[in-house]
Amino acid sequence: MNPRNASRQQLVDMTTDAATGVADGKVSGFSAPQNTAISDALTDANTVLAAANLAQTLARSASKAATEIAIEAQNEVLKQLAALRFLMRGVESPAQDYDALGLDPPDTTRSVVVPQTPTELSATGYSNHTNQLLFVGNNRSGTVTYVIEAKIGDTAPFVLVGTTTNQRFTHHNVTPGEYYLYHVRAQSGRNMVSLWSNEAVVYGT
What we know:
Immunoglobulin-like; three-stranded antiparallel sheet; 3 helices; 7 strands
């Protein structure tokens, strides 16, 4: 193994073997005094490296253990603070009480959902007495309800035929051959509504 590619522990083990081998006269051409001098020099340098490597290994282990303890303690503190906030909400503590403890008061404002107008409405009639509507909602899922209206007959007014939270709707029990004109709009939980979509026609099944 190339010593430069070895880990510190591998280098310690390699140098120990080398020092022993030299001391045992396994290198031909060295005199006995040379064997002793080289072996002693390797051993002295290796002793310093081994001690430094052990110290670093222990420090790394201690650091890891200290980090784990700190993370556990941090999680416990966060748990206790969350419990404190929960109890304060239970007794309806005012915002200034949270401020006094350095905590953010709970957010009592609710975001207003402004419904966006559905687009690309299409309608297809089927022989099983249903009309299938598809459209692009343009609203985040679960934030609005889609209201579907239809004109049933050329001169009839629009009437409510159903609602859905999906971007499709099936109008059941339609009359084959009848004229159906649909449009759809989005409505939020605060009864805010979008504009009506484009209109889609089914002339018959």
